[in-house]
Amino acid sequence: MVRPLHPEEYLFDFLLDNGSISLSFWRVLWEKPLLFRNDLFVDFHYQQLLEEYLHGKIITPRAGGTSSVQQIAELAALQHLAQGLKDQPSLPEVKQYLPPQDGLASKAQEIQSFCHNQVDAMQSLSPKDAKIRFIEFLRNLPLFGSNTFLVQKVSQRGCPSPCLVCLNKEGVLFLHPKTQEHVFNIALEKIQSMRTIRPKKDGKLPAVEIHFGNAGNPQNILLHLKEAKELCHMLALTIEELT
């Protein structure tokens, strides 16, 4: 189980001598500005965003047209330069720089070609500058700062299954996993309560039940996903920090 620590909780209540608990530091809310004054600050944020990007946790433009392919190639080039590498990346290297997005594998050679051009154009960048540009690129994406989950089943009519669910200061956003079209949303101030539900049978996914609306029109929605507890805790933390 993964969940964030809350402000009132004491760190050493969770760290055990047997090593069964691991601790990671990462930014959950991105309200305060980024100031790239030292290497540690840059490395901290770069490593967090790099991991989220490569695991599909950051919503990037779909690789449909030339423009989106060029953007993916630029991010690949920046990852290459961030390691202090100045040579042209091979095709296997380029594939390691790509997020798990539908359609990217078939465009790997096209991305590599654009990536080579980008590496040539950015030879003067230091590894630190490449990391900063990578962070700035992602920060300008429309859904930057969202905590994203792939939900296998949603009870709300009109929502596809599976569905992308993004938690941010705007609320709970439901997106089509392929087109990224917004299909439904719940404002944070409309959420009344939430809870996790254990699966009734082995092999089934746990769920998060969210009650929202008002007394005159109460509503609820069920989200079935592996990271149910993490989503529930993350949503609770987001509400706590922004309300």
From TrEMBL:
> Matching InterPro entries, A to Z?
FERM_2 (IPR035963), FERM_central (IPR019748), FERM_domain (IPR000299), PH-like_dom_sf (IPR011993), Unconventional_Myosin_ATPase (IPR051567)
Q: What protein name applies here?
A: FERM domain-containing protein
Could you tell me which SUPFAM superfamilies the record lists for this protein?
Answer: Second domain of FERM
Q: What is the lineage of its organism?
A: Eukaryota, Metazoa, Chordata, Craniata, Vertebrata
Q: Start and end of every FERM domain? A: 1-243
